[in-house]
Amino acid sequence: MLRSKQFFAKFFSLRSGSLFGLFVALLAGCAVAATSLSAVAGEAAPRHGVSMHGDLKYPPDFAHFDYVNPDAPKGGEVRMAAIGTFDSFNPFILKGTPAAGVGLLFDTLTVQSDDEPFSQYGLIAETIEMPEDRSWVIFTLRPEARFHDDSPITAEDVIFSFETLRDEGQPFYRAYYANITEVEMLGPRRVKFHFDGTENRELPLIVGQLEVFSMAWHAEHPFNESSLTPLMGSGPYQVANAEAGRAVTYRRDPDYWAADLAVNRGRWNFDALRWDYYRDSTVALEAFKAHEFDFRVENSSKDWATGYGGKSFEKGLAVTEEILHEIPTGMQAYVFNTRKPMFRDPNARRALGYAFDFECTNQTLFYGAYTRTRSYFSNSVLAATSLPDGAELALLEPLRDQLPEEVFTTVYEPPATDGSGNVRDNLRKASTLLKAAGWRLVDGKLTDPVSGAPMEIEFLLVQQSFERVIAPMVQNLAKLGVTANIRVVDSSQYQRRADDFDFDIIIGSYAQSNSPGNEQRHYWGSEFADVPGSRNQIGVRDTAVDALIDAIIQAPDRKALVAATRALDRVLLWGHYVVPHWHIRAFRVAYWNKFARPATPPKNALGFLDTWWVDPAKAQALAAGQSPPDAD
To answer: Which DSSP category does 536 fall into?
Structure first.
């Protein structure tokens, strides 16, 4: 599962993610029509929400999510920073670089709660119907649902959005929607999605994450063109102003159709959200300290340890804080492009991992802030932290002849050092592995015995600050006879090269949730290894991996999902596709002290954009340069 309003995360971000239609005659109470519709739905009772496994936390009559303040005041402007540039308001296609915050323009059929593993409640969709085997799902749309031009959201818009994303959107959508075979309009506000019969409990929730845009609007605006004309959405914000590559401002829609729904009560409190673009994070940090913007998530441990100080922080005008969370931290790593001949042998990839001295890097550059990542699902019960047994072993045994023996005998641990900077022992191990892979030293250069070509690799970066992190690894690689270079490019060129798999090694980040599912195909599935723009940047082509992805997607319950995910985790780890980095189990945030937030924070999100608010008393004190009052 991926959240609908993440970039990549992202992710970042993204950070970083609805269907419907009841016959109009029902509004008049037509008993014959009601009977007919019940038969169409297969007697599945309409419900207000759906969960992956188990019960929903919130009942049909819930007033608001527990992690919001339903009485939060509306108002205020928030300024934030983005790095690089943008030239598009279409985040759904490969063309162009989308603006920060563009997901705020779109509503989805359902909305996910941030204090459950994977549960969704109706947003555009008023009700959800599905049978026990989840072989289809019907969404009935709210009659009050409206686009920003005040036109109603219809079943046709939902079908158009789904088919357009699947056929013309980024490759991700093709993977995510692979098991959806047909979409059927049952009425003006009623849509049925049919699935291919494969056991896949996640599919109704995946469809619920569908961003809906206007079919009528796109009749005059081609979908697959990058443009600074915002797409017609129905979300809580609209674009107020944009300067390509410089700044974008969104303003809260005062007539937002869904403002009073239970799923939105206490959310979307800021009147305006502005992102200013900066060349790099160093410049952005200085701008933050000068109060050129209000809120910042810090990703640099050095800046976190040394970059936030002075009178503003001493007086409490600006604040730094670590906010704990329960989100799986996923995998950030040096990612090998296995399409390159030098990285096809797992032994060669494993060998190069010995050149990275995390312990020394953590002490000298990161102020001891990080934990080494040992799993693609770190910080969760999904991580493979012990030898396989039970249901997990049962999944792996039929694949034994395709897997390294270590999958069954050894818990994965990345290479470690004593932190002194002396990696001699690790480099000896690396040399042995490279020799086993066929590489030989010739005149001090590590050489391919078949082609006679020396091993030369390039680290492709978009953040200059990472050069200092990679530099020691480059020196260690040189001791192995490997020529390594670092190349920093702008964000547009980086994205283009990553989409085209035109790199040797990049820094990749694979966000995970507590309920992984269909997105794993896009990360590691063989069918996406050669699809430009896919997240299978590694180029994984492994039938065992494909089988375990299917086991995750088809897991009938939570126990089976955990077993399948742990099995996939250890197979990926022992494939040595990446050199794992590090993680931290908290959000590191800095902000100018004008905000308040709910007493109960969401477990699975930071929640800044949608649950915090501007405290009028604090904002007034800040504007006067005074220490803030003790206000919530």
So the answer is: -
